Amino acid sequence: MQTLSQWPKRDQFYQYLDSLLINPDNQTNLIALLIMNLDNFREVCELFEFRDIESVLAEAAQIIKNSCPADSYTAWLGSDEFAVVLPETTEKEAEQTAAAICSNLGNPIYVNGRHVLITASLGLAFTPRDAQDRYELLKNASMAMNWAKKHGKNGYISYEPMMSRHISRRVSLVNDLASALAENQLILHYQPQVNIISQSIVGAEALVRWVHPVHGLIPPLEFIPLAEETGYIIQIGEWVLYQACTDFNNWLEQGIVLERLAVNVSIVQLKQMSFADRVLEILEETRLDPAYLELEITESQSMDLPEVRPQIERLRNHGVRFAIDDFGTGFASLNHLRYMGFDTIKIDKAYIHNIITNNRDQVIVGSILTMAELLQLGIIAEGVETDDQLRYIKQTNIKEVQGYYLSPPVEKSAFEELIQTVQKRS
């Protein structure tokens, strides 16, 4: 087996690729570039010494080479990145090669008496279809590789023009996030939480919206992940909490009495050492009793909570409540719910959507309700969109719901009007 130093490096790879692209005989041939990156390689680096890491990379390079046609060119680009060029190929053949690489890398590699399981994310780009020069070809193949890594790893994806449009929009939004707060582009909408027994609004969930000056209304599902990745979620989260607490306290002063204010928080915020301090400061600044505040954490993020348990416990000691959102979509256990000290379970809308006709969803919702009762937790059904769904829920022991059938998230003024309308009816 070749040592790592014997494999072609980046400069040799560039020279080879350029020679292919400038050759007139290749102007009509389909040339494929495969860029790949080993998944979770940082963990390998933490487990092994430098000499063993080199052995892992050399073994991976050999597996990649052996998975490719005889006329292919394999290079090590540095760190855990490799490249393969298929000089005369078809899209099907290139994808078959990518699949073979992924499959063969999935077998354990034995290094210094230990076995290592590695996988790779691959991106494919073709010339002349996707690019006309080396720089564009590399960019597009790398973009496809990052797309594969982001969408599950251990696989391959071919470049598509929509990836460039997606990246362009993403970069634009990330750049604009910095000014979104300063230029008052963020607003809050509120969705009522309704007690279906008393037919009264008992809570308000604060939901942030971004009104972009060019792109219009940006969905939270698009910009919140960007805010988490870039760290802007810290500033945005503080603004949301402060504004929501201010609005809620104003309602109380106006005689609009609700039981709770629900505010979503990200695990990124919770991991800040100053998070609990900042929440308590905001509650003091807005003069809101902590007992009104309920912070919501999605179930998928809740598995990272043990390390921030002290923050949660400190806030709970001051009266702040915690809810686990989108329950049923992750892997939270009974013990996990009890250990982390949640007060409320919010059943994910996926189980409510087909609850009339899907017996499994009915059983799951019933099990969640039983679990909540055993643990003495509050429970809210999310995503109620039809009268039939509401009728079914009324037959259970679930007392609180929220969803578009009752009201979509609305601006503050509309929410106030909604409360007044409900109060007049009662």
Short characterization:
The protein is an alpha/beta fold. It is built from 17 helices and 17 strands. It has helices at 10-22, 41-47, 50-66, 91-105, 134-150, 161-180, 220-230, 233-253, 267-270, 275-285, 299-302, 309-317, 334-340, 349-353, 359-374, 387-394, 412-425; strands at 31-38, 73-78, 81-86, 109-111, 114-116, 120-127, 155-158, 186-195, 200-212, 216-218, 260-264, 293-298, 321-327, 344-347, 378-381, 400-401, 410-411.
How are the SSEs ordered, and which strands pair?
Elements (H helix, E strand, L loop, with lengths): L9 H13 L8 E8 L2 H7 L2 H17 L6 E6 L2 E6 L4 H15 L3 E3 L2 E3 L3 E8 L6 H17 L4 E4 L2 H20 L5 E10 L4 E13 L3 E3 L1 H11 L2 H21 L6 E5 L2 H4 L4 H11 L7 E6 H4 L6 H9 L3 E7 L6 H7 L3 E4 L1 H5 L5 H16 L3 E4 L5 H8 L5 E2 L8 E2 H14 L1
Parallel strand pairs: 6-7, 9-11, 11-12, 12-13, 13-14, 14-15, 15-16
Antiparallel strand pairs: 1-3, 1-6, 2-3, 4-5, 8-9, 8-16, 8-17, 9-10
Helix pairs in contact: 6-7, 8-10, 10-12
Describe what this molecule looks like in 3D.
This protein is of the alpha/beta class and 426 residues long. It folds into two domains: 4-159, Reverse transcriptase/Diguanylate cyclase domain (Alpha-Beta Plaits, 2-Layer Sandwich), CATH 3.30.70.270; 181-425, TIM Barrel (Alpha-Beta Barrel). It has helices spanning 10-22, 41-47, 50-66, 91-105, 134-150, 161-180, 220-230, 233-253, 267-270, 275-285, 299-302, 309-317, 334-340, 349-353, 359-374, 387-394, 412-425; strands at 31-38, 73-78, 81-86, 109-111, 114-116, 120-127, 155-158, 186-195, 200-212, 216-218, 260-264, 293-298, 321-327, 344-347, 378-381, 400-401, 410-411. The strands form three sheets. Strands 8-9-11-12-13-14-15-16 form an eight-stranded mixed barrel, surrounded by four helices. A five-stranded mixed sheet has the order 2-3-1-6-7, with helices on both faces. Helix 16 links the parallel strand 15 (378-381) and strand 16.
